[in-house]
Amino acid sequence: xxxxxxxxxxxxxxxxxxxxxxxxxxxxxxxxxxxxxxxxxxxxxxxxxxxxxxxxxxxxxxxxxxxxxxxxxxxxxxxxxxxxxxxxxxxxxxxxxxxxxxxxxxxxxxxxxxxxxxxxxxxxxxxxxxxxxxxxxxxxxxxxxxxxxxxxxxxxxxxxxxxxxxxxxxxxxxxxxxxxxxxxxxxxxxxxxxxxxxxxxxxxxxxxxxxxxxxxxxxxxxxxxxxxxxxxxxxxxxxxxxxxxxxxxxxxxxxxxxxxxxxxxxxxxxxxxxxxxxxxxxxxxxxxxx
Amino acid sequence: xxxxxxxxxxxxxxxxxxxxxxxxxxxxxxxxxxxxxxxxxxxxxxxxxxxxxxxxxxxxxxxxxxxxxxxxxxxxxxxxxxxxxxxxxxxxxxxxxxxxxxxxxxxxxxxxxxxxxxxxxxxxxxxxxxxxxxxxxxxxxxxxxxxxxxxxxxxxxxxxxxxxxxxxxxxxxxxxxxxxxxxxxxxxxxxxxxxxxxxxxxxxxxxxxxxxxxxxxxxxxxxxxxxxxxxxxxxxxxxxxxxxxxxxxxxxxxxxxxxxxxxxxxxxxxxxxxxxxxxxxxxxxxxxxx
Amino acid sequence: xxxxxxxxxxxxxxxxxxxxxxxxxxxxxxxxxxxxxxxxxxxxxxxxxxxxxxxxxxxxxxxxxxxxxxxxxxxxxxxxxxxxxxxxxxxxxxxxxxxxxxxxxxxxxxxxxxxxxxxxxxxxxxxxxxxxxxxxxxxxxxxxxxxxxxxxxxxxxxxxxxxxxxxxxxxxxxxxxxxxxxxxxxxxxxxxxxxxxxxxxxxxxxxxxxxxxxxxxxxxxxxxxxxxxxxxxxxxxxxxxxxxxxxxxxxxxxxxxxxxxxxxxxxxxxxxxxxxxxxxxxxxxxxxxx
Amino acid sequence: xxxxxxxxxxxxxxxxxxxxxxxxxxxxxxxxxxxxxxxxxxxxxxxxxxxxxxxxxxxxxxxxxxxxxxxxxxxxxxxxxxxxxxxxxxxxxxxxxxxxxxxxxxxxxxxxxxxxxxxxxxxxxxxxxxxxxxxxxxxxxxxxxxxxxxxxxxxxxxxxxxxxxxxxxxxxxxxxxxxxxxxxxxxxxxxxxxxxxxxxxxxxxxxxxxxxxxxxxxxxxxxxxxxxxxxxxxxxxxxxxxxxxxxxxxxxxxxxxxxxxxxxxxxxxxxxxxxxxxxxxxxxxxxxxx
Amino acid sequence: xxxxxxxxxxxxxxxxxxxxxxxxxxxxxxxxxxxxxxxxxxxxxxxxxxxxxxxxxxxxxxxxxxxxxxxxxxxxxxxxxxxxxxxxxxxxxxxxxxxxxxxxxxxxxxxxxxxxxxxxxxxxxxxxxxxxxxxxxxxxxxxxxxxxxxxxxxxxxxxxxxxxxxxxxxxxxxxxxxxxxxxxxxxxxxxxxxxxxxxxxxxxxxxxxxxxxxxxxxxxxxxxxxxxxxxxxxxxxxxxxxxxxxxxxxxxxxxxxxxxxxxxxxxxxxxxxxxxxxxxxxxxxxxxxx
Amino acid sequence: xxxxxxxxxxxxxxxxxxxxxxxxxxxxxxxxxxxxxxxxxxxxxxxxxxxxxxxxxxxxxxxxxxxxxxxxxxxxxxxxxxxxxxxxxxxxxxxxxxxxxxxxxxxxxxxxxxxxxxxxxxxxxxxxxxxxxxxxxxxxxxxxxxxxxxxxxxxxxxxxxxxxxxxxxxxxxxxxxxxxxxxxxxxxxxxxxxxxxxxxxxxxxxxxxxxxxxxxxxxxxxxxxxxxxxxxxxxxxxxxxxxxxxxxxxxxxxxxxxxxxxxxxxxxxxxxxxxxxxxxxxxxxxxxxx
Lengths: 290, 290, 290, 290, 290, 290
What we know:
D-Maltodextrin-Binding Protein, domain 2; 9 helices; alpha/beta; 3 domains; 5-stranded mixed beta sheet
């Protein structure tokens, strides 16, 4: 039997990745400690790996596809095929950023001031490329963790991952440049993409993962409206997807249903009511394919 | 930008209040320890306060609106505008009561027997008003907690909050009068109500909070039925909201859907089936606006 | 008032049983330690009992009905009326099995080799019947637990409950026969079945329990399709239940909705999209009555 | 190498048994789920078993020695050699009792009234012997647990284990007879006792277990006293073990130290101080051998 | 039997109070939720009360003695007899303080600037006395909690309890005066002190509580030393309590033991070793009576 | 004020390091998340760092001293001064080892067979030195974790840390060589060692840390013996440290006390009793300086 080998990231993303696959229709079993979890699809094999190493093993063909951050793909300089971005939830829609940070009172103002300095980072590859692009020579030191507490005692500057910058501020650091932004990516090797069976399988999985992710931020709205109010009500609904409108059998009313972003519901429900809509209900969705 | 400042109650109601706002479409962030949580609506500002103090600060205009129990509004004698009652769940639909309790073997039978006695309570204001209304003079002592264990050793009677009375019974106390019943209230100051922008914003929020609360106890029932059974099936559905009936395209069947109280489903599903309904399904709801 | 007394199993099944009744429309309260929990139906009384004893007390009329495994009904040899099987979830659809196991290196190959040997088991009744059917005489010893670690030091063979066999393998045991397979059963006494009021009540409860269980593995799919693609799309949907098809009011499109097994969704959504379906959404269900 | 195989009880006693062996000088490793834990003495092998089965396997020679309750030894009627009693702590010095209990309003007043009745119990052997001794014929039914909630609905009386009787009282039961009292026992088989090497090893282990248990309730008191107060102070110390008295080198004072029951310390320290003792200190003990 | 009724504080001090009584020789049972725990001394009865109310009930004779903070005794203005201070551990040796705090940027610099302002506090009695002593008139408002977040939005200043001031600083407040410092106190009523039996019992309990508290910060040091080094070594030991010196039987050495503050051990052990001391050991203590 | 800056390891060792310092007399506060915890000695400053980086920052003078494994000192090739080994407990007395491991069925038998292969490890420095010493050329790949699951799919061999080898065996790997053994080390920089004040401070700390560690495995034995049995009893005590023998004042008995390894107590207590020793007690120790 043909098999597709997919690498999933160990650690903070692991639980949400399992939950996403579950919503997409694939049940992964094996606990957070197993590196060889099982999946209820005989054509797929799962391996658990550190995010940092994922793209290296996909590029070299030990895995067909993987999920990891765009940052670590870049840090490894891996040549792989992008399948789709996976933004797990509203909260994390803000991308993580790799930033250059120095103490609030540092003399270092721009990347140019790093000449001859010492920089600690978990992403040595990302920083070395950045320095080269800027024509700066500096010592880049691999940091095993807690990078933000190393300035100013141990190094002059750091390059670290941040979402909101609050941990940096709490350590009296200021951001002076952003090296890159990063999203979670589902990607595959060039060889897998060239194999028709694998390509189709990967596209199906990507479609289902996206359908599950999209559903997290959308809801189904249903409502009834009399003919005289029909156009007013339709006018309030987001234009993106035209609503399903259905004339009811016995009373001159219309049933409308439409999928909308959850974030607009609190605005339009009061307006729909004011425009004559009745029986307005909101329902959660598992998957949405536009 | 105009701002509406809303006070939410600290403590046992806090988590359910956050969940209710979430269902209504507003995400509050900041952990249970923060007194200044953020909310994803730039027109609203949240403050966390003790239930006991809420109405005082709304009345005096430091807050535009607040959520707290009717009892504490009464205890403070606050002059505020009622927006709506918020009954968080089936379980707590039973109102909390402020009751006068004495030991099972006490000679105190009615409020009149309190003359000259000592009473412990967390709601000194409520008790003093009650005594005055009944023309009784007694010593009212503020209790910092565990009021029910203070009789008979420390005081002659207590006025305490109870839902089922079980804690009182467990301490060998009997209830001899009920001073008031209380529900959770969403309310605002008279000044906020007089400000047109604030009034409209408050009404929208109240509508959405109610829509989320109502949805907790209701479900959507869908079913198909042949024309010959249509009237019988419709006769089984609660009369309150007329169901949406739709003749299907190709086969002489009708699709019916209707929102019903979850509590009646277990009664009507067997009857619907007996009357010829097919493909009966029940779906949860996030919001319901009748 | 007439009452139906139902026994529910203590232990690993208890929480899932309460959850199932909740989904079916009955709220049981009283914590995992109470043996007399309350239920929000005045016609029902709940008793909590060990699975092993349930059928004995139903047969003898102390309970009207009960939930326990088919295995313990068999172990007790109880003469009761089967109402329905309750398979709580996809994961446990695999039945538990009572198997005869011996050490990997044992000389015992078949049941016949047990002659004169010592066997430990929690289900003495099941094993004694099995030996008798096979015309074998052996010593059957009641095991209070941890049966699988008693071979070979304490006994020659064991009869134990297993789902996947992994615990047996981990103890270097091999399975040489299967005595029986077991599902969870909802069953009642013959007397209860003969009482018309109790019978109707039991049938209603069984219908609702089944409706809740069926909903766990099914979802509602909704989609829109143009007339030209209608037949192709319908051809992709499982034949079991014909979908609800509805011609929309204003544009030559059709709205289709159908309940499908969740397990097929990941296969058909990509195909539906390829065949021209739009606005495909998937919704969870609380109850399904076909 | 010669080996001594000791069975330790699974369940509520397991953790305290491990702790007792640790205090006695033996470290058992393997977690609460392992049935074959390791011990840091090559001459000992540990097996974990249910309390109920322990004495059966010791008597039959599969284990050399075991720890379990006297009650289960009696229930099995096992013929074994008593090494010592193990009372794990002050709290449980009160023995557990097997009692005959009936509903508060039952007509059953004495064992004689059980004639023809039904009794549920986990200790069928204990109850059958008791009935025989009293010349009573009754049906004894094995109870898998929660015995105390089976009267009066399922049986007429129960025989259950109790320490304080509070669980029985909470179920509206009264105790009408005590069948036996039980302590935890360390015991061995007759064969092990006849083997000189095993006997000596067992006696050493028993000595150390007792030394560790005795230390839990005793402390070392040290104090200094002038010659003039020496006799008065000595008179206050418990007579059981004569204190160690030592004349100090340089000042006419005496140092006294003595091991006393912790329970008397709160009485004698104030008196010692009043009698002129100085520098009184109390020290915990790991082991005490009188 | 004569009884002494002692009130112990509910809440954060409760667990450490139970532990202190345990170390002193009294076992209190009943869980953190019970208001009537049992104690293994028939002459004592325990009641659990809020710290804030304790002294009121002792003064009025409903309790003989109690444990609470000096601050709440002062807040209530209670006239009671001080038995001893109880400082539970090194960590909390720093007294709690009641401080007057205002926003960092407030114009209020001294108590005088409070004239006509609004102050929130949990200790209304303490603040009113303080204002009176300073001849200042201001509005004092009872705060139900989270007092530190009420400035500047709700009040002008607060009087709050603090140990390190960190919570105030985190809320951008500065301390401008200290109203009082507070320790935990064991105290009794004047009536109890006048009763000889109660007085003696209270003195015994106070002695034992102090002995247990003192032991927490002290250790026993033992060491051996040759005659030639004896004086040097003795010179290093704290002068407070003269050490116990004992000439050993057979070799011209001396054994020394002495109780010292744990905090000095790290200084003197290296010096003792340098001065010729051998076999230095340190032992924990349960109780110390100097 | 002069300051000594000490680095302590983040992670699994952190809690036991804090506990060790506590036993040695130094209280470190600041929670497991703080990188700048406080210590109750004004002459010391604590920094928390990853074990892997510690020796690098000590060598370069950013820290005066540190605690980390000998392995990471070696991996960094750091030139530092060894102060003492710290073996935290009996359990971990077994050193951790860096081993070369391959699949059970691999053709790689010795280090020589690694020529041209790919090796994954967390300790790239350790492996490169090892290969060089053996004259082997191979690709060494930094592993971010879970190294043991990378063979055979991703690499040919691994070098990993192990204590018992059980995790390797569970992954079907065999150990074919040991590169180094490692203990936890307390060490300092050459500059700190050359500074007389720092050197003395470091020696004091090392003495106290060792005293605390030694006490974990030792106990004080005390016993009384009559003159006639004195020599026999002394003969049973370990020869290492001569016991303290003291003739008692009044009765021809001798009191003996001696510090012994806890591991021998279970052997000698039975023998001591047999030889006439009485009143044998065992006491725990906080610190031992021989």
